[in-house]
Amino acid sequence: FAVVFSAIIHDVDHPGVPNAQLVKEKSRCAQIYKKSVAEQKSVDIAWDMLMEDRYAQLRACIYQTEEDLRRFRQLLVNAVMATDIVDKELQELRKARWETAFDSTAETQDEGVE
Asked: Which of 29, 44, 65, 87 is the most exposed place for a label (fewest CB within 10 A)?
């Protein structure tokens, strides 16, 4: 659900210009967030809405414990931040995670099976 929810909210209140332009123009949100400006703003707006009383039943379906809540938020933030494809630091983190997950030199259980 976190991935679906992040897909829905990833452009909430997006101004339609790149983050670099928001920083260059010294927009209010760029002064608050510094990097991945639009993505962080989207997460904050959507999270604040999700925490409103009217969504209490939805939240009860999403998580039951504080640990579930932390994990849901972590997945949500990571998924939305992944949409910032220009940030070089995030690109390097994604590349490292990909290489770890799909390391071609790692042995597999099927090795030697014909």
From this structure: 65
**Are the beta carbons of 58 and 28 closer than 8 angstroms?**
no
Question: Is the per-residue pLDDT at 88 higher than 60?
Answer: yes
Tell me the pTM. Answer: 0.75
| Nearest residue to 5 (alpha-carbon basis) of 52, 41, 53, 58 | 58
Neighbouring C-beta atoms of residue 111, cutoff 10 Å: 7
Which residues have a Cβ under 8 Å from the Cβ of 74 and sit 6 or more positions away? none
Residue 79 Cα distances to 4, 28, 109, angstroms: 9, 24, 30
